Amino acid sequence: MRRIYRGIFIVWVALRYGLDELVLTSFQKPWLRALARIVSIGRKLDAPRGQRLREALERLGPIFVKFGQVLSTRRDLLPPDIADELAWLQDRVPPFPSKVAIATIERAFRRPVGEVFVEFDETPVASASIAQVHFATLRVPDGSVREVAVKVLRPGMRDVIEKDLALMAVMAGWVESLSADGKRLKPREVVAEFDKYLHDELDLVREAANAAQLRRNMDKLNLVLIPEMFWDFCHPEVIVMERMKGVPIAQLDRLRTAGVDIPKLARDGVTIFFTQVFRDGFFHADMHPGNIQVSLEPESFGRYVSLDFGIIGTLTESDKEYLAQNFVAFFRRDYKRVAELHLESGWVPVGTRIDELEAAIRTVCEPYFDRPLKEISLGMVLMRLFQTSRRFHVEIQPQLVLLQKTLLNIEGLGRQLDPELDLWNTAKPFLEKWMSEQIGPRKLFEQLRAEAPRYAKLLPQLPRLMHDFLENRPADHRRELLELLAAQKRTNRLLQAIIYGGIGFVLGLLAMQVLVRVRLF
User: Fold this and answer.
1) 3-state helix, strand and coil shares in percent for the chain, rounded to the nearest 5
2) CA neighbor of 152 nearest in space, from 124, 115, 114, 119
3) What are the E-state strand segments in 333-456?
4) 267-286 burial, b for 16+ CB within 10 Å, e for fewer?
5) Using an 8 Å Cβ cutoff, are 416 and 252 in contact?
6) Quick check: pTM over 0.70?
7) Number of H helices and number of E strands within the chain?
8) Active-site entry in 91, 286, 319, 418
9) Eight-class DSSP state of 95
10) Distance CA 50, CA 88 (A)
11) How far apart are CA 196 and CA 349, in angstroms?
12) At a CB cut-off of 8 Å and minimum separation 6, what does 61 contact?
């Protein structure tokens, strides 16, 4: 019943704010326009459409606000008036009362707020869908006073999110059972991924841990600043972190006036993203402009300031390798390799014709190369790739949904900073260097060094383990093992002969070259 009530409430809000008008009036069919007029009777729709959409998303709750945040970065897909209004959702969601924030802080730390902080500003400086932030000063153990930012979770968030996620799960089940593409798109698994990340975002200690990990990962890159966490003052509902001073990245005129190199800033953003994804497999997955600032401090001038670490994406080694190979193949326009990778990974059914898949991918991607970012829409590329994937029954990977969302955010940010940015050529050298490090001698040496402690522990035990095995196994198994060991010894001797022979052959060639040069001179 709760899901039914929530569904009715969503429909009521959509009608109340005239969202049906935004959809129905975009069709040319007379009967649809007539239906829009009938539905609109008795409502006051004087406010601009962008404002009505923003207010409706705010009324519907955090999941819908996040949806609006993602949309706000895609100015290439939205009319300017709607994009401008949705941009307010990035850090201007209506705050909750300061008294509630103070009560949450006092409940978390079990003492009055005046005993926790030297000073506490009751006026929030930022308010988002999940939490809001207050500035304060804190006395640290060494006796000094530090400027800090206090992030406080919105009250009652868990119940609201769980209601919406339950409704989304039901809708995903309908899509999977009624749609021909349902099973391929895996909507229930995608909702489960979204569920996990949203619940993670409700635990502010997890966010603090994410920030600490990113701070370590990015420490030597010297392109981005991440706040230090004060662990003695971190609680699931409240976290205290270093106060960061920067200019919101959306204020481009102010950044240009201060002398920030905007094109370099755009290139640095691409470098940060690909470093987090392919080097670390641990990336900031909520990179809308409200969470990004630029430092104007002399010691860190022009560097990014990253905020809000509630949603973090992770990739396994196999995910990273697969994606990197795909990107490199795309950048080299090796569409056959892209098709082969899809088959090798099991994303397309066995028996799919490589040449047909190659031709389809080439048709989608080729028109977009050698163009500046202002002429490319990754959203459009992804849409066409999804259309191609439907034809070839490609299975969507839920673990990559966050990466796709973040890539769209990066594109939207890059489009605002430098429309002339060549996304492909900026990323290609980084990925090729990363691939060479993954398959070269350096990577092999690093893996051997990482496994050395395990080998050092196991090697002394091998004789005893082998003896116990031979003693406890039947005679036929012992005989097979002895034959296997003898064969291994013969193989080792043969390999040694080949290696020594090869070395001798190379030395012989070198000696002949020396003799020839001696005779020539």
Assistant:
1) 65, 10, 25
2) 124
3) none
4) bbbbbbbbbbbbbbbbbbbb
5) yes
6) no
7) 23, 12
8) 286
9) P
10) 11
11) 29
12) 129, 160, 161, 164
DSSP letter (8 states) at residue 129: S
Tokens of 156: 């009652």
**What are the beta bridge partners of residue 348?**
none
What is the Cα–Cα distance from 419 to 186, expressed in whole angstroms?
Answer: 35
Cβ–Cβ under 8 Å, residues 77 and 379: yes
Show the tokens assigned to 23: 């959809």
Nearest alpha carbon to residue 392 among 454, 350, 434: 350
Active site residue 422: no
State both tokens at 290. 């409200």
Q: Which two tokens stand for residue 368?
A: 């977009």
Radius of gyration of the chain (CA): 29
Residue appearing with tokens 């998303």: 57
Q: Tell me how far CA of residue 417 lies from CA of 46, 87, 251, in angstroms.
A: 34, 15, 10
Contact 90, 72 (CB under 8 A): yes
State the Cα angle at 413 between 409 and 419, rounded to 5°.
Answer: 130
Do residues 105 and 117 touch, judged by C-beta distance below 8 A? no
Residue 94, burial from CB neighbour count under 10 angstroms (0-12, 13-18, 19+): exposed
User: What Cα–Cα distance (Å) separates residue 515 from each residue in 489, 508, 510?
Assistant: 39, 11, 9
Annotate 395-433 with b (16+ C-beta within 10 A) or e (fewer): bbbbebbbbebbbbbbbbbbbbbbeebbbbebbbebbee
Cα dihedral 233→234→237→238 (10° resolution): 50
8 Å CB contact between 52 and 15: no
Q: Indicate the domain borders of the chain.
A: 2-90, 159-196, 247-439, 473-520
- How far apart (Å, rounded) are the C-alpha atoms in residues 454 and 106? 48
Write down how long the chain is. 521
411, 423 Cβ separation under 8 angstroms: yes
Other Cβ atoms closer than 10 A to 168: 19
| pLDDT tens over the chain, length 521 residues | 666 676 777 777 777 777 766 655 444 556 555 655 655 555 666 788 888 888 888 787 777 777 676 666 555 556 777 777 777 776 567 788 999 999 999 999 999 999 999 999 999 998 877 889 999 999 988 888 999 999 999 888 777 777 777 777 776 776 676 555 556 556 677 677 667 767 777 889 999 999 999 999 999 889 999 999 999 999 999 999 999 999 999 899 999 999 999 989 988 988 898 888 888 889 998 877 778 999 999 999 999 999 989 888 888 877 777 777 777 777 778 888 878 877 776 667 777 788 888 888 888 777 766 666 556 665 556 556 655 666 676 665 655 667 776 777 777 777 778 877 766 677 777 767 776 776 656 666 666 677 667 766 666 766 776 766 666 655 555 566 666 666 666 656 655 665 555 565 555 555 555 544 444 34
Write out the two tokens for 478.
């012992």
- Tell me, what amino acid is at 97? P
* Rounded Cα–Cα distance for residues 496 and 409 (Å): 55
